[in-house]
Amino acid sequence: STYSGKVFRVTFLTLAVSLIIPLLGAIVLLDCPIDPQPISLKEPPLLTGVLEPNIKLRKAERLWEGQLVGPESIVNIDDVLYTGTADGKILKIEDGELQTIARIGHGPCGRPEDEPTCGRPLGIRVGPNNTLFVADAYHGLYEINPDTGETKMLVSTKTLIEGQKLSFLNDLTVTQDGRKIYFTDSSSKWQRRDYMFLVMEGTDDGRLLEYDTVTKEVKVLMTGLQFPNGVQLSQAEDFVLVQETTMARIRRYYVSGLMKGGADIFVENMPGFPDNIRLSSSGGYWVAMSTIRPNPGFSMLDFLSEKPWIKRIIFKLLSQETLMKFVPRYSLVVELSETGSYRRSFHDPNGVTVPYISEAHEHNGYLYLGSFRSPFIGRLNLQHV
Fold first, then answer.
1. How far apart are CA 177 and CA 300, in angstroms?
2. pLDDT, tens digit, 9 for 90 and up, residues 22-77
3. CB distance 246 to 202 below 8 Å
4. Cα torsion at 279, 274, 250, 121 (round to 10°)?
5. Pairing mode, if any, of strands 342-348 and 206-212?
6. What is the mean pLDDT of residues 230-251?
7. Which end of the chain is more exposed for a tag (fewer CB within 10 A), N or C?
8. Three-class SS state of 385
9. Are 50 and 343 in contact (CB under 8 A)?
10. How much is the pLDDT for 319?
């Protein structure tokens, strides 16, 4: 018995040392791809009241499952839907049939390393002449004729804007007359395929920009943003809302009126990390949360926010895809009032039906749910929730 105990201890210590020494060596010797900065986040809001967890998103149906992948953003012209997908396509969905109408990049597609050439259309909007305005993360800002597929570049990512490159075009919003396009560049350092690096590093080089379709000029409206993501003009078009994903908040920039050129916080300390934002029929806004900040509960991103040293260790040992497996699939969409208060929330704990929701687009009594990773579009009947 004594001999067996000694053998066990020696064996255990030998195994422990054989694992710990290489691990310590990797931590010390391997380079970290990011230079994380501490981020100060408030304690997440309690999920009570209108934010009380429910399973309303589980009532959504999956449409065209397996026929498309990563439909990030969705628009409609009458009852015809349009979306951009992870394989670089702009798709038209009419009477249940899918048709590729345009492609900004070129193949091959499918792997993360293919994205810079394949292209990744993210934000998509409809202009006053029923043309599509598309923000491609790698190539730039485009206008597409949905009938002919004719594609026109408006702003190239190869063009320096005030001395800084565009590396990660994300979303856009267009004035009713089509004169101005407001769009986000999430980072001048990281590309879309490295979005986890951008989040975990806390990079603050994102910008809100304005493109004038008449003068062809691009202006920088806001700088120093941490992962600026979805954008939305107000109904009166007097301000633009910008989702600042890393900081779990929405910024507001005034584009007209007495406050023109000023900025403030529209909503802060949100219950999740916001992706896209779109108008709701009630005069408010739909906000899709890419992941939740549970309270009560544990939020990995909140826990790591002020611990750069742990982030360095993580990214020395794990890839972005591996890290994504630890991000909860909890799906959340909230509706905000015109003043930024919470009206209602739709939840799907564990992301059973539609995981990783990137956008909620309302049309004809339905909420169409985009997802940057799912092979389908979700549809929720708003009369049944």
1. 43
2. 545 555 557 889 999 999 999 999 999 999 999 999 999 999 999 999 999 999 99
3. yes
4. -70
5. unpaired
6. 98
7. N
8. coil
9. yes
10. 87
Residue 303 corresponds to which tokens in the numbers above? 């826990």
Q: How far apart are CA 30 and CA 76, in angstroms?
A: 48
Residues ≥6 apart with Cβ < 8 Å to 216: 154
Return the number of other C-beta atoms located less than 10 Å from residue 176's C-beta.
11
DSSP 59-102: G-EEESTTS-S----EEEETTEEEEE-TTSEEEEEETTEEEEEE
Task: Please tell me the distance from the alpha carbon of residue 220 to that of residue 161, in angstroms, as a whole number.
Answer: 8
Distance (Å, whole) CA 172 – CA 208 = 10
Average of pLDDT values for 17-24? Answer: 58
Instruction: Round to whole Å and give the CA distance between 125 and 104.
Output: 16
- What lies within 8 Å, CB to CB, of 384 at 6+ separation is 59
Q: Nearest-CA neighbor of 124 among 183, 62, 67?
A: 183
Look at 101 and 373; give whichever has higher pLDDT.
101
Q: Measuring CA to CA, how many Å separate 159 from each of 16, 115, 139, 142, 168?
A: 53, 19, 10, 14, 13
Tell me the β-bridge partners of 250: 243, 267
pLDDT of 290 = 82
Distance separating alpha carbons of residues 34 and 310, to the nearest angstrom? 12
- Residue 263's pLDDT band (boundaries 50, 70, 90)? very high
User: Are β-strands 342-348 and 228-233 bridged in parallel, bridged antiparallel, or unpaired?
Assistant: unpaired
DSSP 247: G
Task: For the chain, give the percent of residues with pLDDT over 70.
Answer: 92
Measured distance CA(31)–CA(123) in Å, rounded: 34
**Token pair for residue 66?**
């397996």
Contact 191, 138 (CB under 8 A): yes
The identity of residue 167, as a single letter, is: S
Residues 104 and 136 sit within 8 Å (Cβ to Cβ): yes
pLDDT tens per residue across span 94-144: 999 999 999 999 888 878 889 999 999 999 999 999 999 999 999 999 999
Order of strands, edge to edge, in the sheet holding 366-371? Answer: 61-63, 377-381, 366-371, 357-363
